[in-house]
Structure formats: C-alpha cells, structure tokens
Amino acid sequence: MTSRPTEPLAQTGPDSLLGRSLSQWSFLLVFPRAILLQVAHPAVGAGVAEHSVYRTDLWQRGYRTLTHLQRLAHADPAEGERLGRELRRGHRDIHGVDSHGRPYHALRPELFLWVHATYLDSILMLWELCGRPLNADERKQLYGQWLRVGRCLGLRDEELPADLQAFTAYFTATLATLERTEPVRHLLGPALLTPPRPVAGLPLAAAGFRAFGRGLFPHLTRMTVALLPHEALTAIGLSPAHRAYAAMARGLAHTLNALPQQAWPL
C-alpha cells in the first residue's frame, strides 16, 4: 500500500458495529469462509501447514482464533495494542518456505493484512446474509473500526488501504493469487470429523460425533464454498456450490440472530 488511510480511526468496543458483528451467533456462518480465504494464500497456508495444530486440534484452534478476534474488537485502544503485541509475539517464530520455494515470515505486513482483510469482507457478507446490507455510513464506520484494529496489529498507515474503495481493489487483486494449498484441501476434506479434544477422549462420544458429522459437515462445507467470492473459486479451482446452499446460509443467519447477541463467552 502506498497511500495513507483517508478514513478516520473509529472507536471499537462491545457496542461498536465491529464488536456487535463479531458477537452475533450468525458470524459463525462466515468465520469458516474467512479462514478458508486466509489459508488459500500461499504464504499463510504454508505457515499454517508447518506451524499450526489445525490437523489435531482444529476446533480448539478455531475457538482461540475467534475469541482473540472478539477481544481485539471489544478492547479499548490500550488493551487492543497489548493484544496486538501478544499476537505478534506468538507469530515471530513462524517462518519457512512455501510450496513454490519462496521464503515467508508470519510477521510480514502483507500477511497480517490479508488475514485481517478476510474478516472485514466476511462481516460485510454477514450483513447481506442477514438481509440488512450496511448502508454507506455504516460501511464507513465499520471500516474505521477495522483500521483501528489493524493499527493494534502493528500495521502502519501506509500498509492499510486508504478507504473502502481501495480495500475492494486490494481484496479483489489478492483473490487472484490464492491457491489450493494443503490446508485448503484438508479443510475441504475430512478435517471437521476430528472430534474436539474433550470428546476425542470418550470413544462412544467420538464415534457419535463422527457419525453425526458425516451427515452434516459435507453440507456445511458446501455452504462455505457457496459464500466464497467467484474470483476465489476460480483461483482455488473449486466449482460453485449449488445456490441452495447460499439460501441455506441466509436462513441460518436469520435463525441464529434470534439468539442473544452475547450468548457465547469471550
């Protein structure tokens, strides 16, 4: 990025648009979409493949990611900066070489930006699924809050898209660079059938989880694919899911939004 953000940094917190978006149960519908877009990035995918426990502890890993994301959105500026430093410390030893032989390091700004960007794009889709697309003022407000969290993550002004128009151009261009990485293949395959850790130690419960999952999880995977941008499908080499799965996502969004917004713990 070469231009400085023109949008002002907006206040985050539990009652902010960003905080409320991440506290909805319906965010769980687009969270897997964001993760899939993240790991389809060659460098991010390589880092996850080599350094993450997603193969053996997928559910707990996802929960940790989600709660950390919530805490960043709900934090005041000082707490947000502390959480950002904590996150960067946890990534400083994540480096290696991707499948093309290119070196990567998790602290490279473009990788932090891509991961952060997938959440904003997925939140915008969330409100569309809920039947209430954000208006121009709300999108501007959300973008300012997203910028603030980006600063907490250590991204500088010149590393962030100046406004939503610049963000859209950046996001669309990056979609064309995505690939079917090893984590993408795993997440689109049997990954969800690995029971959460408390269940895995109970043979009968684990067997029941797998039996239930074999019927449910393929449909959830297809729903996630149905929510991916067309450019991502082309880059990753995926066929579009049947449009019924997008309709299923909209129906689930309305159902989940009937639950209390703060029903799940931070």
From TrEMBL:
Q: Which InterPro entries match?
A: MPAB/Lcp_cat_dom
Report the GO molecular function annotations: oxidoreductase activity
Q: Which residues form the ER-bound oxygenase mpaB/mpaB'/Rubber oxygenase catalytic domain?
A: 23-256
- Classify the source by domain of life: Bacteria
Could you tell me what this protein is called?
Answer: Uncharacterized protein (DUF2236 family)
From the broadest rank down, the organism's phylogenetic lineage runs:
Bacteria, Bacillati, Actinomycetota, Actinomycetes, Kitasatosporales
